[in-house]
Amino acid sequence: MMRLQGYDVAQIRLIFHPVWSIDVYLVYAERFEIISQPTSYGSASRGVCPDLVTGLYVMKRSTRVNGSHLGDIIPLLQARIPAPVVPRYGV
Prior knowledge:
Blueprint: E1 9-16, E2 26-34, E3 37-38, E4 46-47, E5 59-61, E6 71-75
Antiparallel strand pairs: 1-2, 2-5, 2-6, 3-4
């Protein structure tokens, strides 16, 4: 099973370069959180694991109490790898 500790899944919304620095690029990224899934077929126990049918992690956007998306500004160099995100409609 793939371990995700120490990483966040986020959607990069904006890449920018501050005028006061010539060697730093920043990104505004909105976070996702992984939804717990059943650990095996017919099991009542749930955990942070991929969906049993698709093998993909099920995620939702992280939100604040007021419903707005949770985002951060981070250096572009902290972005690690792109990940394909497939929408799940009608659920």
